[in-house]
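Annual report, structural modelling task.

Input specification for the zinc ion complex:
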Amino acid sequence: MVANELINIIQRKWMKLRLEPIRVFCLHHVCEHFDADTMYPCDWMALDAFKKKISELRNQGYQFISLTVAYEHLKKDWFRRKKYAVLTFDDGYKSLNEVLPWLEEQQIPATLFINGKYLDGKSYRETSKEQYLTYDELFSLTNPLIEIGHHGWEHTVATEMTEEELLVSLQKNIEILSSHPRYIPFWAYTYGIHDKNSDVIIKHTNLIPILVAGSKNYQWKENIDRELM
Ligand SMILES: [Zn+2]
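The model returned the following structure:
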């Protein structure tokens, strides 16, 4: 047991010597004004603060890449010195209309994790004032810098669903999103909450799981973890 732990420590240290971690950030609303009627304070970042953070990361030597490219690096790199960062946005809020044009201007890729149900312009999570991208808005995002992944049909925690409910949620979302020209088979768990059962189900769908536990990614380890920005 002690020997195994020692081997693990040495392996981890060796991995960290070889590989620069890839940082994947999780964002929600990035826009100029906070609106208490439609946003949760913890989900909002001021556009100015966001631009400053991007500039800080660039000054630290980070290059922004897409989630798909990051995944390829995590799977294949044996040695990595370059610093890479990825931006992802959960829930598909309408406020994306404010930040995405700026990201495009900056040639920075972004991945959106979408709940298919709310694209109809009528459905919502908790209050009818919440504003989401509509189906037409989402499907007009065809820029190669954009990627569209899953966040479930509704914003339901995977571990609170039965196996069948989780599968239906996945299938309904796949049905609506997979025809998007920028579709990617990645699944961001709601609040990053998962367990062994949900992991097995996701594995069967061949979707790549994404968490929000705050750690950095060195190499592919069954999922990609994200930090809040
Ligand atoms: Zn979410």
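The helical segments are 2-18, 47-59, 67-76, 96-105, 135-139, 163-177, 196-205.
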